[in-house]
Design a protein that fits this description.
The protein is of the alpha/beta class and about 525 residues long. The protein folds into three domains: about 170 residues, Rossmann fold; about 200 residues, 3-Layer(aba) Sandwich (Rossmann fold), CATH 3.40.50.12780; about 100 residues, GMP Synthetase, Chain A, domain 3. It is built from 16 helices and 26 strands. Strand 13, helix 11 and strand 14 form a beta-alpha-beta unit. Helix 1 crosses helix 2 and helix 2 packs across helix 3. It is globular and about 75 Å long.
Amino acid sequence: MSTLFDIIAGHAATDPGRLALLTEQDGVRTYGELIGNATALGAALHVKLGIRPGERICVWARNRPEWVETYLAAGAAGLATVAANPEWTDAEAKYVCAHSDSVAVVCDADLAARAAALAAEIPGLTHVIAIDDGETEPPSSAISYTELIANAPADPRDRLPTGEAAASAALLMYTSGTTTGRPKAVVSESKAATGIDYNEMFGLTASDRALVVTPFFHGNGFGGLMSALAYGAAAVFPRRFSAGRFWRLVDLYRPTYLFTLAPIVNILMGRPPALHERTHAFRVLIVLGCAGGAPAIEERFGAPVIDWYGMTEAGMGTYTRLDEPRRPGSAGRPFPGSGMAIIRPDGTRAAAGETGEVVFDRERIGFAGYLKDAEATASALDDRWFHTGDLGYFDADGFFFFVDRKKDIVRRGGENISSMEVESVLREHPGVAEAAVLAMPDPVLGERVMAFAVAADPAHPPAAGEVRAHAGERLAHFKIPEEIVFIERMPRTATGKIEKFRLRERLAAEERS
């Protein structure tokens, strides 16, 4: 099976001058330049630095052309890429580099000194490669990314590994740890077919331009990027998302589709109307997890929305088709070949309308398990299925409805309460901007419902009793939070997910005090 490097190299051979990457701060790359730099870098990593097929290199950088080149170079050289968050603290970055056994770090110049300090503490991490920015002076121990490519072996394509060694590449992405606080390393195959499959479902072509504003270290940003390149389209991206510059970027580069997450779109929806938000060239907005918010997004921005459900381990599970009516609250029907199903606790398939656990056929998704975590891998994978820990159901027509995370279900007495349902009702109160519902231990009922909330006007938060009365008009009595605590802001990951484990830690600390 062809790798992504092979497919993109084919685009470069056919039309080397075609635009591949368009960036706000770092210029452009044609397909010829992209594959030329990736080939040279792959050969340099293999020959000059002695990094062997099967070893791992960490990319600790913001969205930029060099991130893409490094990933493709690693694939060409038979290496695994470890995707790291540039906003991590030193302790977080150290954990990931050590846990993944990375032998090299490719990083932004302003992170190079920190990376060098980590390399001094981590056995086996022998190379720090700094992406030159013309502003920051990396430490003398760092290798210049530009010079490494410039000094690559002659005829670099002939110096790359071949055969089984070249096919050993994989991608490691660390989950956000929103439920446990400790990220798990998801080991996935680099499946070249995925991007092409996505585009065929969405009706995209090589003439399209994809705007990707989520980080490449996240599955959503990576998927949007690689789906564009796999099809020979152009990817447009800033180094990091900025709501204030978003529509300027859209007007400047005229992308034809957006690939992003619901929290990003929600930020745009919460801002005053922008000059270019109705004069764009978008044909479609592909938004993970927008569910019932799709009609409002379409009305505001004047472009059709494709909602979808998926995750790092399994990729895309379901999506909404543009050629059929939308089911309110549904994330569409299964993506062809996803192998997605809903099962009961005994492993049998759930009936239409029956809530069960969302699972995927493990042979179809290319998920190899969690690195160095046999317990988590055994919990997630059985002989047939990857168990997501999500709850949902299919209706009679095969439309998927997400219910909640199993860990976020509040089990009060004999009732199972969806935290998402309660959160949705709380957000309907005009004084509540955000809400997060948790289970609190209860000596009689087992668990009870409590909520953290952020006020729409922090200076004048509504009374908790007022919000509870609002919830009581819309929810059964047992679903109403027994306690509502207003906080200044929700703890979030880089992609906007609420870190409920931090809220649980806060509760535990308050109970101990």
